[in-house]
Amino acid sequence: MYQSVELEIMDRLNQSKELISHISNLELHNQNSELVKIQKGYLFVSLYSSIEYTVTSIVSRYLEILKQEDLKPMDYHRYLLCAVLDGKFNALAECGKKKIWDKKKEFFDALFSSEPIDIDNSVFPTDGMNISQKQIEDIWSIFNLGGNPMPEGINIWVLNEIKEHRNAIAHGREKAADIGGRYTFNVLNQRVSDIERLWRPSRILCNCRLD
What we know:
By secondary structure, this protein is mostly helical. The protein has 10 helices and no strands. It starts with a helix and ends in a 6-residue tail after the last helix. The mean pLDDT is about 85.
């Protein structure tokens, strides 16, 4: 049920692995070249693309599967209701004073309904910022995933480091060569390994559950 998503995730992870391999080959010939520094910088862009695609795709696919279950709202884990009833929460938050009580009643009608809930698979538990540790922890909590959000041995600041460097390059605040020039091959190779461990699809997919 997740096969197509898993293949796409691995394709993106493999792009980062190909890039780090290319960087290794370049360093063998000219360790201080500008091209090597640029490639090192753009590795952070590649790693972040893997993170964002993995998180958004799995959340979307998970909600699609929940939708197929045709369950009523109260059949879901309490935190899953944050996603399942997202539209009702939004309607309540965005209505004016004249409609507030009607929207409250509609919310509880939906919550205690015996009819299957229509789930929007575009819902994503985020504050609108780029994906970081906080978003990952929220996903683990709201979607009731087993295990720890961050695998043992991976520093919690790795996600923030990748996010910040990606944003700095993408928005033109820093040049890729300037960021890449701060890192050795060994450190970057460890970052690739960390992200592969963090976003190994089976680590997330096998933890998805309803109860």
